[in-house]
Design a protein that fits this description.
Length: about 300
Amino acid sequence: MSIEQKYSGYAGPAPAFSEASIKDYISLLKPRVMSLVVFTGFCGMLLAPGVKDLHPFLAVIAVFCIALASGAAGAINMWYDRDIDALMKRTKQRALPQGRMQPDDALAFGVVLTILSVMLMGLALNWMAAGLLAAASLFYVFVYTAWLKRRTPQNIVIGGAAGAFPPMIGWAAVTGGISLESVLLFSLIFFWTPPHFWALALFRNTDYKRAGVPMLPVIAGSRATKRQMLAYTVIVCLLALAPYLLHMGGLFYLGAATILNVLFLRCAMRVFRAEETDHKPARQMFAFSIFYLFGLFAALMIGTF
């Protein structure tokens, strides 16, 4: 399929010259998604042994590289998905579906930033962290965006690995390696991702149907989705206790994790019991799930002081 055919759903002809503003280029980086990525990456770095020996400037560089790579992957994702973005209510106002930006400009922007972030991480910190950063970007672009997203309802389950890399990258930036602790942080985000995004998919189901994206609610229905959301929520809540057992967090963390777990499980139960047409519990769970992950990682960081 040619680019022109793939992009047949977009709002108008591509301009001869880019009409995109600086704001449009910033939006390509998905700043809201980036904020969570940066936060968890910084947490992984702060929890790593030897972080006190890392020069503050290098710590800033590491966080900058994680942010840059995350935004770059988001830009390439928007370039590839511009046809389906034009069909979805929540994305159709983006610069590419609206024709304010040349597709080639968005792709070049993403590719250049990806290369820059990986090379800078390798040269300033270490090549293990750079390799993980590259792996996360490549996984998000080629495995999730280009392969899984339009082919399987398990797109979020498998593709969620890309968003789980940041704390492992932060850890590697300090230590130059991977450990059980960093794998645990990866696992927390990996198992958190499905209930988080399926909550969104429940109340945006019409959008995904219109765009032909096989999200779980579209393929399996809301009841099956809610069962799986509840199962993954239970797994996440159990994993959330593991940092205490591995001495990554003390009693403060254990208390915070317990409270957050109870509230997260309560959200999942409300979604499970809700009528199919009642999307309020799913909206609440989607919003709370972001706070939940922020809260867990914040509690871990507080315990380091």
